[in-house]
Amino acid sequence: MARMQADLETGLAKIDADDRASARNREIQTGDSRNVFLLACAITGGFFGVLGYMMVYPVPAGAERVIDVLLGSLGMAWMGAISYYFGSSSGSVNKQQTIDRMTRK
């Protein structure tokens, strides 16, 4: 069972890595790096702008859910942009799990 779980996690990590590589290759082939960069900047500005707004101004009554959904969506988009440019930490997690397994023996 553990082997199946590890194979599944490895397969999912490969799909994620292939997806990022495909997006990066598309950017190189089309020369569309400026638009991708501007989109990542807009997402970053929106995410931190909403966070800053929430720290300065009270959220209007009844709008808490809308703000939470907006912030959650921007947070996920921001994480995608960061993962695209800097990679994700899933490789680090897998590496640490492998080290833990090797040191237990």
Low-confidence stretches: none
Class per helix and strand makeup:
mainly alpha
Query: How far is the N terminus from the C terminus?
Result: 19 Å
Which percent band covers the strand fraction?
under 5%
Helix content: over 70%
Compute the number of strand runs: 0
What's the mean pLDDT score? 78
Largest sheet: none
Order of helices and strands: HHHH
Shape, per Cα inertia axes: flat
Tell me what the structure shows.
The chain is mainly α. It has one domain (2-104). Helices cover 87% and strands 0% of the residues. The chain has helices at residues 2-30, 33-56, 64-86, 90-104. It is flat.
In short:
With 105 residues, the chain is mostly helical.
For this entry, give a set of tags.
4 helices, 87% helix
Helices and strands, with pairings:
Layout: H1 2-30, H2 33-56, H3 64-86, H4 90-104
Helix pairs in contact: 2-3
